[in-house]
Amino acid sequence: MTNLTQLTLSDAVDGLKAKQFSSKEITQAFLTEIDKSNPHLNAYVVVTADKALKMAEASDANLKAGKGGRLEGAPLGIKDLFCTAGVRTTACSNILGEFTPTYESTVTQNLWDQGAVMLGKLNMDEFAMGSANETSRFGPPASPWRRQGSNVKLTAGGSSGGSATAVSADLCLAATASDTGGSIRQPAAFTGTVGIKPTYGRASRYGMVAFASSLDQAGPLAKNVKDAALMLEIMCSADPKDSTSLHLPVPEWTKSVGQSVKGMRIGIPKEYRVDGMPEEIEKLWQQGIAWLKAEGATIVDVSLPHTKYALPAYYIVAPAEASSNLARYDGIRYGARQSGDGSLTSTYETTRAKGFGAEVQRRLMIGTYVLSAGYYDAYYLRAQKVRTKILEDFEKAFEVCDALLTPATPSAAFGYGEKGADPVEMYLNDIFTVTANLAGLPAIAVPAGVDHQGLPLGLQVIGKALDEEACFKVAGAIERAANFTARPARWW
Amino acid sequence: MSVDKNTVRKVARLARIAVPEERLEPLAGELNSILAWIEQLNEVNVDGVEAMTTPVAMKLPMREDVVSDGDIRDQVLANAPKSEDGFFVVPKVVE
């Protein structure tokens, strides 16, 4: 039998149902692999071995009885952003100390309800603020990918770097992730995996540690498009516990994956051709266009004139909402308290100074500043209006096309420390992904090729609001045409 | 608009983050470079434009105004850094 950890989620689910192997066997295979690999890759920040084996036993009993959910017995990794009852959840921040939720996030509950098995909690940027997963209190994960002939440690992207590392290194069948400005799609592109952010409101935010509430969405990282569709179908639900959750039925996206793109109109936004973009990215984009043309799609040139304002708008909206959301971390009700000089104000100020890392503090300062008296209209309100302009650009483009094709990232994965000290340079990583968050649209990243150093590169498909189906159809067609089979050479 | 050391001190106070005196100047520099980059938004004409709320128009759901949760005091206190007799213990605030 093939190595169980290398199976896709869909194949593993089928294998479990056909009793080719038990949940205990595949779970144990993952735990053994995590034991060996995690000291090198740092993907997991908590491994829940006992819980995993107990869940696997329960799944095996269900499978034996001919029962079981759609993910019965399938081992998954969970981003440390999702509250998991009885399992430490810190969003990889010191300020949460040893916080152990007494409740479960809706997204993870949906997965357990379908029989999935939890392997542990995955590394991420502190409060999901970062593009390289280097702001984690537990240190960064190492991508299994390396440049040919080099041993430079590369990022798996951020903020869902642990999820991308775990999926691409076969340390879980699939993982949960979250995306506020590109945190699912950029790591997917960097690691040759598939990641989708659904339309805002499809996935409940209940029990997800909040970063920027009007932008945050959960989604999966998976080994292929079909697995991503399966995960997303189960993660999404209408949830009375989240008032922004959409009260709409969840479509059967797994059925869209194999469908033809014949007759679809694919828009190519000219503003996504940015200065200094490597020629390889442009080539990959052209290749994607050629594949879709060959499959019978029509290519349409479109314009999204406000694209260049997306990142600056994001860096007002996201820090502003974060400064409000993170006000709850006061060291009083949960998390790590620092007493300072013993007074209440000093307790707050010392707790937050010691508990938050440098990048989080920087964003909280920006957010507090732009929301402070007299500046609200000039910054936050203006940024929210620019968001409307960005959404209008998309709506206009979607009058003449059904989905948009763009590169997922402006470069392949970079090494730790290769970016300069200027925070804006790091922010520019999200240039192609952040627009979909601001407009609330679904967007998927799918591997499409490798660069000259053998590193994965991804393409992005952006759909109309509620049209994840188009994302899955187009991504599926790209996946079939690209036949991406590159694997990281094992060094760990 | 650019921020100086005193503004940073004020913002840090508002954000309830203790920032040591020697960090104020470097932070002002970092914040200014981000704010200068954000200034680009002033180029966009937003006259008569509504602020974005959601991509999918939806009425906020309503529910009966009844208690749907509760009686979980021990769960609420389970992660408290300090608690006693069913209460959070906080620093003294009244002299």
In short:
The complex is a heterodimer of chains A (about 500) and B (about 100). Chain A is of the alpha/beta class and about 500 residues long.
Describe this structure in words.
The complex is a heterodimer of chains A (492) and B (95). Chain A is α/β, with parallel strands linked by helices. Chain A has a domain at 4-262 and 413-482: Amidase signature (AS) domain (Amidase signature (AS) enzymes). Helix content of chain A is 37%, strand content 13%. Chain A is built from 15 helices and eleven strands. Chain A is globular. The two termini of chain A are 23 Å apart. In chain A, 61% of the residues are buried. In chain B, helix 1 crosses helix 2 (21-38). Chain B has a domain at 5-43: Histone, subunit A (Orthogonal Bundle). Chain B has a two-stranded antiparallel ribbon. Chain B has three helices and two strands, in the order H-H-H-E-E. Chain B is 35% helix and 4% strand. In chain B, a hairpin with a 2-residue loop joins strand 1 and strand 2. Chain B is mainly α. The chains are: A alpha/beta (492), B mainly alpha (95).
